[in-house]
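[step 3/7] fold_predict: job queued, chain A
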Amino acid sequence: MASGSLNDYVEAISQARSLVQAASQLVAIGKAAGLDRPAVVADFTADRVEIGFQDELLNQVFGWLPAQAQEWSGAPLNRVCPVARACRVATNPFIWEAANIGAAEITWDQNAQAFWRTAAERGIYGGVTVPVHMPQSRVGAVGWLALGRVVDLNGIIRTHANMLRLAAYLFMDHVYRERAIGQTRQPDASLSERELECLTWVALGKTDAEIGELISRSPSTARFHVERAVEKLGVNNRTRAAAVACQLGIISAVA
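[step 4/7] structure written:
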């Protein structure tokens, strides 16, 4: 298909009236670019990645089988999936090949290692992934997979990277708007001096026990102050609380 068709599909995402309509355009974009099935994760930074909101997309529009969808349900993808990890630090579309990931020494999770070492048997060759960075340190991704065949992924990136990136962000706008993924109240920057102190130590990678020792209090007291900071900032874990606090300028960014 001509790249002009891809432009039309991207424009159709911006004009779509529903998430399902927008999702059908992702399928068309993949085909126009020379890829196969889309894959979307709304928020890698959540404690557990839940895909229940995507059932309609995965099964009816994208063509994933229920068993394939459930394989990822509830998995902490930001910790076990190398593609997810790359999305945390990348801003531009990138390619990945399942064989290269499977051959790498993935030491942080045995299940993840087993999955990628058998990816070829599952028909997964590789893909193009677009990281989508959203407010309050949320990170999601929109990608397209190459299934059961060798694809010139580098050529696809060279030719279509900008359009794929635009499509990903336009589609994620639909996800966040219609499914309220990651929507929280506005963060409250009025943290107490102790909460700011504890959150700064969190940003430096300290545990509750270490923070308690540093502030001459018990680990449970340190945890209480951190949890209060998490609640005030309207996020769901201490790592995101530290990131949002840095974004708001209420604690210093840590190198």
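[step 5/7] annotate
The mean pLDDT is 79.
The CA atoms of residues 2 and 201 lie 53 Å apart.
exit 0
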